[in-house]
Amino acid sequence: MYCTVFKAICYSPTRRHPSLSLSLSLPSLPHTRTHPALPTTKGDDDHNPRTTHKQGSSNMSWSRPICRTALIHSPSSSLSPSSTIKMMSMSMRRYSASPSTTAGPFGANRQDAWKWFAKTTIGCSIAGLALSFTILNDANLAPLYDKMQSIKKLVKSTAKDWGMSISIPLLPEAHAFSLPDHGLHPPHYPWDHHKLWLSYDHASLRRGYQVYREVCAACHSLERIAWRNLVGVTHTENEAKTMAAEYEYEDGPNDRGEMFMRSGKLSDYMPKPYPNEEAARAANAGAYPPDLSCIARARHGEEDYVMALLLGYYDPPAGFKLPEGKHYNPYFPGGAISMARALYDEVVDYEDGTPNNASQLAKDVSAFLAWTSYPEHDERKKMGMKTIVIASVLMGLSIWWKRFKWAYIKSRKIVFKPPKVPEV
After folding, report:
1. Which of 68, 81, 277, 365 has the fewest CB atoms found within 10 Å of its own CB?
2. Is 10 annotated as ligand-binding?
3. Are residues 195 and 284 in the same domain?
4. Residue 343: domain span
5. Residue 83 — pLDDT band, cuts 50, 70, 90?
6. Is position 124 annotated in a ligand binding site?
7. What are the tens digits of pLDDT across the range 307-320?
8. Where are the beta strands (DSSP E) in 266-333?
């Protein structure tokens, strides 16, 4: 008797996401006896008329997954067709148990898993509090650290005796914070341009450039800022051209191979106060005034540090030895800075009539130096807002597409039922 029966039904642990199920009965060989296909057990979804489709002589329907099994009955098999069908039916009933009875690593169902996680979290929190109050307190940390350091030294000495070099990164040496070595942390000022929806105060930037030009430019340079960068930010194009023309720049060579001097253009960078570093040190008692193009970006605290440094000159405290030619400033690392205080009340007369006290001068020049460090600040914020709006719309469309377009495609199950063949 030549008969080939193939049955494969997939098993899925949940009904929400049933997997694809395929049930086939291969055509029989000529002049052979065939047997009817096995029935398929269906779930509650069979009562929904939307889940049943008919096409030709085969029925396509949505059904609950039952088991995962495959059986081929060949002429060499010793089992009879009826025994084969009974065996497959028993296998189907064995795997058709409810998915909720399957126990996971954290419980039988999702509720038990949540309970397990809640208990674990509460237990870890209580254990952490008990550990911090009993062992990791001020009375025990110092002896514990000393013991760990002694163990570290013992391990290193043993490794050295064996001719090896070892480092223990988990046990670093602790050093107390030293104000003279690290400097005082600057206070945080409420800058408007730190808000997501606000740009630089361009009136403040214009005043800050005036402070830089009249006070700071005598010692500090802006090597990375060209005159054209001021156009549309602090000055108009004609104003920038006029300011650039006030300086002479070396250019050339000309037709005779000679260098010549010409008036500045918008493409030129702002001139340096000194021709080289040696000349700058010679004019400032050995100290080198840094370039201010990226000073806010290069310092921790950014414009807060710049403003605190400009206003942080005090008399040295008792016991502090100030070197000759230095000035005490707690915000500067080491506390001793070569630059003397440069900003005082009414040292600069603003064009727009803004009060010109020392704090206002420091605020404006700090904002200007923040712009020189981040000239793309305003454009970056504009691009960020556009990106957030477009990404939000695309995310909503993606959720809708996933929910209403792909949900039924990914979760459907198709079963092919062959027509019943009468026995011969």
Report:
1. 277
2. no
3. yes
4. 182-225+269-375
5. low
6. no
7. 999 999 999 988 88
8. 327-328
